[in-house]
Design goal:
Length: 389
């Protein structure tokens, strides 16, 4: 027999050095990642890769925390300790009523007046009226006596398109002589919604060419704006859906239920997020997500299996994103924007807490609320909001 010889194993391959990859190549790789989780892992490789990630942020919303002392803004992606994104049009003491893509927000600059569309990216400001034009007695009064101008107060608002666009329409949930109103550039007053506007609507969004509002009974109010004629007159078509509620869990004793509307990440479905809050047990406890289904003349809210999406929910600032992982449980980030009493109580707050906010996983194995958003002292001017830059 031949003597057994010792076989020498080849030395282990040296770990690849990724620190020398050109920045332009890294940027292309990063921008090609559709999954938010993959982008997070990309940013954790080393300092160079993290720098590339911060220079090419995904379109995730930023957390905006306004107050009279100053407005702070935090990236959800990249970490809260990173430098705050610049705000060109930040206004101290303003109350934020809604946010739309492109950096536009509807704000109230003073306590009871000074409504405006404000772009936090460019600093551009478009004044909005402080009054609504109301018709008395259904228009049966003598000429020149059937229309009055009444003060209006906006509590939540959504925008169909940026102000330079001819399709720009602002819809608002309001208090005063009307509970909902509409405006487009060129109008000197808000126009009230058609008869049957919701009295206690909790949220408002724009989806599929229409504005949608939901009340505490899951009734859905649909408003389709139309701009016609040489003068660009605004008319609004109105529908009310008496939605059947399938598979809805009733609130436990002492729980408050709040609702949010938003389009799904695909843009095809309209979603309603129900948030269950128990003040005696520390705040938000759980969520349910439903999809609007219209079939054979029947409209219903159907339980929605939330997979491969992350939702950011807030008053007229909610947004859904596709994570690129269709089989993974969805996730919901939420803000502290629910107050006791009717929905218009947002206008009666001396301060706006910033404590009941965080994240919640749609996985049945991990439904615990995560307090993962930055803590702040109560604001003296506005609830926190998702800034859709």
């Amino acid at each position: 027999m031949f003597p057994r010889s010792e076989r020498q194993m080849p030395p282990p391959a040296a770990a690849a050095d990724w620190s020398g990859v050109h920045q332009d190549i890294l940027s292309r790789i990063f921008l090609s990642l559709a999954c938010i989780g993959d982008r997070v892992r990309f940013s954790a490789v080393n300092q160079q890769w993290r720098g590339v990630a911060l220079q090419n942020p995904p379109p995730l919303p930023w957390l905006l925390m306004p107050s009279t002392a100053g407005t702070s803004c935090h990236r959800i992606f990249g970490g809260f300790a990173d430098p705050q994104p610049p705000l060109a049009g930040a206004v101290r003491g303003a109350r934020f009523c809604g946010s739309s893509p492109g950096g536009w927000s509807v704000v109230v600059l003073h306590q009871w007046h000074g409504h405006a569309l404000l772009n936090l990216r460019s600093g551009e400001r478009v004044p909005l009226p402080d009054h609504v034009r109301v018709t008395l007695n259904g228009g049966r009064a003598p000429p020149n006596f059937n229309v009055i101008r009444c003060p209006i107060m906006v509590r939540a608002a959504a925008v169909s398109a940026p102000p330079p666009s001819a399709a720009c329409v602002v819809a608002a949930l309001t208090t005063g002589q009307t509970t909902m109103a509409f405006w487009r550039p060129g109008m000197d007053c808000w126009s009230p919604a058609p008869l049957g506007a919701p009295c206690d609507a909790q949220d408002l969004t724009y989806h599929d060419g229409c504005f949608w509002a939901v009340n505490p009974w899951e009734q859905l109010f649909c408003y389709k704006p139309e701009i016609a004629g040489a003068d660009g007159a605004l008319t609004v078509q109105h529908l009310v859906y008496q939605c059947c509620a399938d598979q809805m869990t009733p609130p436990a004793p002492g729980e408050i239920v709040s609702r949010y509307l938003l389009p799904a990440a695909s843009g095809e479905d309209l979603l309603m997020v129900k948030r269950f809050i128990d003040p005696a047990r520390g705040g938000t406890r759980r969520f349910e997500v439903f999809r609007l289904e219209k079939q054979l003349g029947r409209t219903s809210w159907r339980l929605y299996k939330m997979e491969g999406q992350v939702l950011f929910v807030g008053r007229s600032c909610s947004k859904a994103f596709d994570t690129g992982r269709s089989g993974n449980p969805g996730y919901i980030y939420f803000l502290d924007d629910v107050y006791g009493g009717r929905p218009m109580s947002v206008l009666q707050q001396n301060e706006y807490p910033c404590t009941d906010m965080g994240g919640w996983s749609c996985s049945p194995d991990d439904e615990e609320i995560k307090r993962c958003l930055p803590w702040a002292h109560p604001s003296d001017s506005s609830p926190s909001i998702w800034y859709l830059h």
